[in-house]
Amino acid sequence: MKDGGGECDDPFAVPARRLAGSTFPTSARKGRGATANPSGRYEPAQRETFDDGWASDDAVRRLPTEDLPERARSILTRNTSPDLPFDRSINPYRGCEHGCVYCFARPNHAYVGLSPGIDFETKLFHKANAAELLERELSVQGYVPETIALGTATDPYQPIERDHGITRAVLGVLARFRHPVGIVTKSNLVARDIDILAPMAELGLVKVAMSVTTLDPVLARRMEPRAPHPARRLDAIRQLSRAGIPVMVMMAPVIPSLNDHEIEAVLERARECGAVEARHVLLRLPLELDDLVNDWFAEHYPGRQRHVMSLVREARGGKAYDATFGRRMTGSGAYADLIAQRMRLAKQRLGYADSRITLRTDLFDRTAATGAQLSLL
């Protein structure tokens, strides 16, 4: 039988595991990535809904996106992780409407009393004072510039950025201070800001990482329903590259038996569009993400669920997730090594850079702060 659309390709397979918890009719969550909305891990009570037969899908409205302001007290987040190429980051938004079911940031929504499931992609927060805070933090005497990663948890160019322009405002501050920034996104909206990014690129102050997980629009719509079409992301790579902005293509995540066969094709298309770096991340399933991704497979690809999860666990030391530094991004073992080798060979064949592009920090200008007093010396 055909694998997809909820059909099982193995009539003798054990029924796929489904996630218990707060659910919504299929029509209500159309255009959303998560298939359930379980309570956050810090909640005192667990919710579970069931169909009593009185409501029909036709009468259920689609889940709206709620967008609320969040008055942040600081905007730079620090980390000491040895397997990340940056020690500070900015996330203008909490939650992400792109709805990528595999997003490793979903569990963070539990910190504000919300579900990592559908809540993560429907209940969003924007940090309206992000640019103001950034200017203040960069102006502190003794601040030492290093590359800021913009959009490490949630996408800085998700749809509500069109309304708020917070990411653009942040980039404006960084440009004035001549501060290096690395942007991570899967949205072609980044091309809107070429007027800011191109002059920064001329000074060696910016690069963009574009996430392209698949070239298959059907698969993309299922696992990242409100992210731009893969072709639009490739076009954004082309526009950025033509403007002199270095672009890295991110095959993130690589999902066993789902998109791993596309590694070489994605890298080849991205290279044709001008990408100069390429990296990958193996599917990560921290905390609630294990159940959420399993439930998604049970609905969309039930015949593959057990095989996919067995490969994930093989690459994670027998567990759903291994948070050990050095292994959490790429995994370990035979399958993980095979993926790494395929990436390495494809990059060599296509002419990708062997090492990361480093950005300049020596141009940092603290006097760019609004109202800053110029030095007499």
Question: Can you describe what's shown?
Answer:
By secondary structure, the chain is α/β, with parallel strands linked by helices. It has a single domain, classed as Aldolase class I (TIM Barrel). The protein has helices spanning 118-122, 130-138, 161-164, 166-177, 194-202, 217-223, 230-242, 263-272, 289-300, 305-314, 334-350; strands spanning 66-69, 77-78, 88-90, 93-94, 123-126, 148-150, 181-185, 206-211, 247-254, 277-282. The strands form two sheets. Strands 2-3-6-7-8-9-10 form a seven-stranded mixed β-sheet. The protein has a three-stranded mixed β-sheet with strand order 1-5-4. Helix 2 runs parallel beside helix 4. The longest helix is centred in the last third of the chain and has 17 residues, at 334-350. The radius of gyration is 21 Å and the shape is globular. Mean pLDDT is 89; it is low at 1-15 and 373-377.
